[in-house]
Structures are given as C-alpha cells and as structure tokens.
C-alpha cells in the first residue's frame, strides 16, 4: 500500500483539471446534454433555451469554477490509472526466450546394441551479473534492452512530455496540451535484448544443478549499455539564440 501526493495547480487537483478540459473539448454531450438532443419536441427546445441562459452565468463565473461547483471530476477509477516508477532493484520483466542449458549425447548405446553406455555432456548458461549499490551487492540479469517497444512502451525512460499552453482567444480557458518525446522515434534501434555477461558451466547431465568441476568460463559482449543512444531536441528558440550568438561573434570579429 502506498500513496502519491499530487501538487495542486492553482488550488485544483491536476487530474481534475485535465478531466474538466477533456469534458469541455471532447465530451460536450455530457456537460451540455440538452444541446445535443436531436429531438424536435417543444419541451426539449425550452430546456435547450434554459440551459443557454444558465450558460451565461457559467460564462461569467468561468467554466472551471462552475464545474467544480457542480462537483464534476471528483472521483476516478484507479484500475484505469498507471504510474511510471523507477526500478531501484535493477529488475525488469521482459519477453523472449534464452538458452538455459544444452545436453548432447552420442547415442553410443544404440550403436553397440546396449553393450556400452552413452557419453553425454551438459552445459548450463547463466545470464546474471552483480552490481554494487549503497555498499550492497545485488545479483541482477545481465540483459540490456537496446530500446523499448514502440507499442506499449510506456516504461520508456525517454518518454517525457513537451508541454504547451494553447488559447484560441482571451475569453476562453486555456488548454494544457503536450506531445511525447522522443522526437523521430522511428530512427531509434529496434527493441531487442542482449546480454553483457554469460557464465558457462559444465554440469552433470543427470543433475543439471551439480557442476562437474570448480571451473567455469565467462563471455562478455558489447551491449547498448556501453554504446548509448544520445539525442538532443533542438528547439526553435534555442536555434535562434545560437544563430544570434554566431552573428554577434562575426560582428565582433569584423569590427
């Protein structure tokens, strides 16, 4: 059990604020049901006229204050919410398959009519590594994802909002919109998992948990953890500032 403290925006919960914005922009049939009734009944027409008169009062008070007074968007369904948290134990669930062990046999018994026994060899592969955090060693998977899947990649660390505020005219409420980074995501590598460390142990074929000797071999590989993908979002204002700085340097050099 845990709880998350959310900072209010001008005294309004941000979840409520964005829900009211969605209600105002895309779900007006719920906030103004009489305006979306196609019936030609005189009673419906009167109700529509009365609702228009009421809207004048809400126009004076403001849409947000009127909606809060009506107790709209006060509750929400936690089963349809998700929160992106960090993974301090370096453990993530991923799909795909990997080789756990390989057992080979020469089937010598069948070739000698059961006169001699088979020769078998078994090898185990362990995909773990150790990291030290706050003086404590943790055993984690050596798998490194080159990138998150495009579809359903909400856990992607590059997914961050680029916020913007839009207002069509001074008399209407502003809309808080955002688009998600990274820009040009199609240029990023495909989602696959590579392993930086693989421990290979020869084990008893009859008992895969028992090593045949005290030795083992370790193979290491280059992964995306070493060859990082770096990107920079060059905004227009930043480009203009750099351009002005370059022109200023040229003027200073020429003078």
Which features would summarize this protein structure in a list?
6 helices, single chain, 5-stranded antiparallel sheet, 255 residues, alpha+beta
**Termini, distance in Å?**
68 Å
> What string, H for helix and E for strand, traces the elements in order?
HHHHEHEEEEEEEEEEH
**Tell me about the biggest sheet?**
5 strands, antiparallel
Number of helices: 6
Q: What is the CA-atom radius of gyration, in angstroms?
A: 32 Å
Structural class: alpha+beta
Please provide the count of β strands. Answer: 11
Task: Annotate the secondary structure layout.
Blueprint: H1 14-25, H2 28-31, H3 42-61, H4 63-69, E1 101-105, H5 108-111, E2 120-126, E3 128-133, E4 136-141, E5 143-145, E6 161-166, E7 175-180, E8 193-195, E9 197-204, E10 207-211, E11 217-220, H6 236-254
In brief:
This protein has six helices and eleven strands. The protein is elongated and about 100 Å long.
Can you characterise this structure?
- The protein is an alpha+beta fold.
- The chain contains 6 helices and 11 strands.
- The chain has helices at about 15-25, 30, 40-60, 65-70, 110, 235-255, and strands at about 100-105, 120-125, 130-135, 135-140, 145, 160-165, 175-180, 195, 195-205, 205-210, 215-220.
- The strands form 4 sheets. Strands 1, 2, 9, 10 and 11 form a 5-stranded antiparallel sheet that branches. Strands 3-4 form a two-stranded antiparallel sheet. A two-stranded antiparallel ribbon has the order 5-8.
- A hairpin with a 2-residue loop joins β9 (about 195-205) and β10.
- The radius of gyration is 32 Å and the shape is elongated.
- The termini are far apart.
- The mean pLDDT is about 80.
């Amino acid at each position: 059990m845990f709880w998350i403290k959310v900072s209010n925006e001008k005294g309004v919960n941000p979840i409520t604020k964005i829900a009211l914005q969605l209600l105002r922009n895309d779900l007006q049939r719920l906030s103004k049901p009489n305006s979306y009734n196609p019936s030609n009944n005189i009673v419906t027409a009167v109700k529509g006229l009365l609702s228009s008169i009421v809207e004048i009062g809400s126009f004076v008070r403001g849409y947000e204050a009127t909606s809060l007074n009506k107790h709209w968007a006060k509750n929400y369904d936690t089963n349809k919410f998700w929160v992106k948290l960090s993974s301090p134990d370096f453990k993530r669930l991923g799909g795909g398959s990997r080789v756990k062990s390989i057992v080979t046999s020469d089937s010598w018994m069948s070739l000698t009519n059961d006169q001699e026994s088979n020769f078998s060899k078994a090898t185990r592969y362990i995909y773990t590594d150790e990291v030290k955090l706050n003086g404590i060693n943790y055993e984690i998977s050596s798998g490194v994802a080159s990138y998150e899947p495009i579809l359903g990649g909400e856990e992607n660390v590059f997914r961050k909002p680029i916020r913007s505020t839009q207002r069509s005219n001074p008399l209407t409420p502003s809309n808080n919109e955002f688009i998600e980074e990274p820009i040009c995501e199609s240029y990023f590598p495909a989602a696959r998992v590579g392993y930086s460390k693989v421990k290979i142990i020869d084990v008893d074929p009859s008992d895969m948990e028992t090593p045949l000797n005290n030795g083992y071999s370790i193979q290491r590989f280059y992964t995306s953890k070493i060859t990082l993908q770096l990107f920079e979002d060059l905004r227009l204002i930043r480009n203009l500032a750099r351009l002005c700085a370059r022109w200023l340097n040229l003027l200073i050099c020429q003078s």
